[in-house]
Prior knowledge:
Elements: H1 3-42, H2 61-77, H3 80-108, H4 123-136, H5 141-165, H6 167-173
Helix pairs in contact: 1-2, 3-4, 3-5
Amino acid sequence: MNSRFATIVLAPLIKIGAVAGLSSVILVMLLGQPRIFMTMSKDGLLPPIFAKVHPKFKTPYMSTIIVGLVAMILAGLFPIGVLSKLVSLGTLLAFSSVCLAVLILRKKQPDTPRPFRTPFSPWIPLFGIFSCLGVTLFLNIYAWITMIVWLSIGLVVYFTYGMKHSTLNKATNG
Length: 174
């Protein structure tokens, strides 16, 4: 295959694929993150404004606006390459956390009814943790530094606001 053919035919197809892939990731994030914040707000981990639901559309509109504004600011401040690595790192760490939570809940609350049972437990969750963390080792140092900053901000929010207001925390500690 000559390079002229690749430039004329394949390059635009790759660009279209990249734009479609980025668009779908951004849309899923902008749909999913407000609902995560709404649920966290209902538990008291975030201020009540994040739980406000639109009376007509029944969507978490305040959370959607806040997430959209933050996304716009981040998109304006950081190059797309940095943002893509941050999203990858955050997703991998979230998947690792879920796998770890499966292991912990199976041990601490074995009798809790569950609609889904993880096959080959604990091997599948352990494989998930190690494979996700293994992939994170290939991300650059800037993604890690930025993730540590965001994680620190999240921990500050949790320890200054969420821990005191969490309904789950109140229920378990009386």
